[in-house]
Amino acid sequence: VMAEFEAPSASPRVLQPADQDRILVTGGAGFLGRVLVEQLLERTASTVVVFALPNEPVPQAWGPRWGDRVVVLRGDITSGQDVARAMQGCHWCFHLAALVGDAGRDEDHQRVTVGGTAHVFESALSQGTAVVLVTSICAYGDAIQRGPCREDVAPGAGQGPYGRAKQGQEALARRYMAQGVQLCVVRPANIIGPGSGPWVVDAAEALRQGLPALIGGGRGNAALAGVDNVADFLVHAAMHPRAWGQAFHVHDGLPLSWRDYFNDLARLLGARAPKSMPRGLAYLGAWLTEPVFKRLWPGRRPPVTTEALNLIAWDSRFPLDRARALGWRPKVDHATQMMRIGAWLAESRHARRA
Questions:
Q1: What residues pair up with 192 in beta bridges, in sequence order?
Q2: Is 45 a member of any domain?
Q3: For position 124, what pLDDT does the model report?
Q4: What stretches in the chain show pLDDT beneath 50?
Q5: Is the residue at 108 inside a domain?
Q6: Which domain holds residue 115?
Q7: What phi and psi, each to the nearest 5 degrees, are found at residue 70?
Q8: Is residue 112 domain-resident?
Q9: Using an 8 Å Cβ cutoff, are 335 and 343 in contact?
Q10: The whole model's pTM is what?
Q11: I want to staple 163 with a disulfide (CB 3.0 to 4.6 A). Which of 111, 158, 236, 257 is the partner?
């Protein structure tokens, strides 16, 4: 059962705009992480420590723009020693690092995502660091298919290795919160923005190839979350005393369906309107191909996965009452977000031609 988190007994440490402490962002060089790092630099006086993989690229503009306020530390989230070194002297940690993707082996997702989270919590426990943990609506498993999911709803069966790992992260969060770690858990919905892997890069490729991008007509709510709005909520929550000890959804709260979104994306690409596939046929395809890919090509993604269908084949409803109770509202509207995606897609096409 996804039991409620409990508010800390002591007064929580709240991030202040004038705070000059060190803030650690694991996965800070990733899609969401880069946006979060920029917002932390703009909205606080802190030094931001970006924990990145040894060969992971980081934005070149960080150095000239922010100078020594950005510190890039290289390491691996699966190494407790690397994590402890990165967290040294940090009063805050935004934990984003995880194995991303709806395919692959469970053992890899558990080792990287769940094992890495255990290292983060162990270091936070010993160093007194407050942690904002980013999980996902995928933690609800097939409960998504049974109607609206509030933050305290019991999760269903995990629908893939990614969702099961997110459930594992939240189980760890409860355990370490009981030991005294100051925690806030944020479950973003389907994050879109320039560079989004599943909802821009992969979706655009499917539309260009004329493959079915919609399931059952795509009539369900897409629960879209602009990347700028997700990053904004993460900072907002860390600055709010009532956020600590709670779990939150974050998305744009719009009445947009998957058909609406994929039609918008197709127009940006100059592609035909998206095709649709019956839900039963899509699930049959996932059930037939996923075991084969796991056995023969574990590093490759099947054409369709049960995890993805759990998000795009159903009506996704995640109330925003808790986030709104903190005074939060999305700042970047959908039209602006799509304009930014369009510019990024055009730039990407130009770069490929060059």
A1: 226
A2: yes
A3: 97
A4: 1, 350, 353-354
A5: yes
A6: 22-195+223-252+317-331
A7: -115, 120
A8: yes
A9: no
A10: 0.94
A11: 158
* CB contact at 8 A, 2 and 187: no
- Number of structural domains, the chain? 1
CATH number at residue 134: 3.40.50.720
Specify the pLDDT at position 212: 86
Q: Which token pair is 240?
A: 């709010």
* pLDDT for 353: 46
* pLDDT at 172 (0 to 100): 97
Residue 279 and residue 215 in contact, taking contact as beta carbons nearer than 8 Å: yes
Long-range contacts of 321-326 (CB under 8 A, 24+ apart): 321/150, 322/151, 322/246, 322/247, 322/248, 322/249, 323/233, 323/248, 323/249, 323/250, 325/242, 326/236, 326/237, 326/240, 326/242, 326/243, 326/248
Q: What is the pLDDT of residues 40-67, one digit of tens each?
A: 999 999 999 999 999 999 998 898 888 8
- Residue 150 in any domain: the answer is yes
Q: What is the DSSP string of 215-264?
A: ETTS-SB--EEEHHHHHHHHHHHHT-GGGTT-EEEES-----BHHHHHHH
